[in-house]
Amino acid sequence: MGVPETTAIYLNMLLLFTVVLLLVYAAGTVSRKLMVGAAQKFSSRTTTQFDDLLIRNNVFTHLAKVVPLIIVVQALPLVFADFPAWIKPLRTLTDVYTVLLSIWVIRAFLRTIKDFMKGTDLFRDKPVDSFLQVISIFLYFVGGLLIFSLLTGKEVWAFITAMGAASAILLLVFKDTILGFVASIQVSTNDMVRIGDWITMEKYGADGDVIEINLTTVKVQNWDKTITTIPTYYLISDSFKNWRGMQRTGGRRIKRSIHLKISSIKYLSQDDIKRLSKIQLIQKYLEERNEQINTYNKENEIDKSLLINGRNLTNAGVFRAYASAYIEKNQFVHKELTMMVRQLEPTTTGMPIELYVFANDVRWAYYEGIMADIFDHLLAAVKYFDLEVFEHPAADDMRYLSNSLAGTRMPGYVAEAMQN
């Protein structure tokens, strides 16, 4: 008894399908090994990194899939010769796969370009990710239109026309992407931020190096190694501080004050001037200034029985001169940038003497060390000028005061309260 004709047709189709499936698998394996192997041999003989990146991003692996695809397309009419109604839908699926494979190849190539550009000095600090993401979005959009056209049988323009009515919804959905794209262009064009820049954005708790700039976000690695993610468009809508200029000049600003106790400021007598003249940094300054002041007072017949008459040196002014001489001689102060010691407006916490200078090492740890050494020295030097640094009373000060007053004649309940 023979095999029914219908069964024979299905068996023939299954047999051909199995043969084609095995052929596709074999062809895919062989083409991948040959193409990737040839690429690896070629890249080993070249000095450029571009071909190595092509291999790493699987460009040749995706290209090798073209051979099995060609076999499938050519075999469809043969395998399904007895089922002509199946050929068109299957051909549509192969066309969809062709579109997807094209997107994969182009995406792998774009990743290669990104890695290659990031490895060069010219583009290492540029927001390459942002522009490639825009290209990727456009690529997926075009691929989606083509797939829609293949599956529905409608023209691409018909779908684009239909999208016009939904443009408001699309703008809402892709708002962040559009804003990020515009921001990326402005950031790149105006050179506002580069990868590797140290930025500070207090509003979002960002204080560290920029490690990535893409279409929608900027990643900042803070000094405590945490990561802060900031929307890209916030860089053009909000204020932030970029420390690149400081790093370029090689000087980092020191702006800190010493608050002198106002009651310790006084005129200097000749004995005081003679004693302070032993300080080498201001010896010449004191001699010149003292001579100028004495000459002026003599010419104007100033009565110096009181120091307040005429011109005089003060211990605060001489201390400022000493601080200026000290920073000028300090090897860790940048000599080509501003060096200034200035007196600020007196406050309830004393009279501030501010140092406005630049350390010649921008590295954080070294900068802190330079600043600490300068102020350690100046704080220790204050007492040589009969000056005092203002500080609020501490618990020990209050106990000392209460103990000092405890022996004086006062009501018992007052002394007891102060002792407590």
From TrEMBL:
Keywords recorded for this protein, A-Z: Cell inner membrane, Cell membrane, Membrane, Stress response, Transmembrane, Transmembrane helix
Superkingdom in the source lineage: Bacteria
InterPro entries hit by this protein: LSM_dom_sf, MscS_beta-dom_sf, MscS_channel_2nd, YbdG
Parts of the chain that traverse the membrane: 6-27, 66-87, 93-110, 131-150, 156-174
One Gene Ontology term, aspect cellular component: plasma membrane
Keyword Transmembrane: yes
GO biological process: cellular response to osmotic stress
Keyword Transferase belongs to the record: no
Membrane topology: Multi-pass membrane protein
Major subcellular location class: membrane
Limits of the Mechanosensitive ion channel MscS domain: 176-244
Subcellular location: Cell inner membrane
A GO molecular-function annotation: mechanosensitive monoatomic ion channel activity
PANTHER family: MINICONDUCTANCE MECHANOSENSITIVE CHANNEL YBDG
Protein name per the record: Mechanosensing system component YbdG
Organism of provenance: Pontibacter chinhatensis
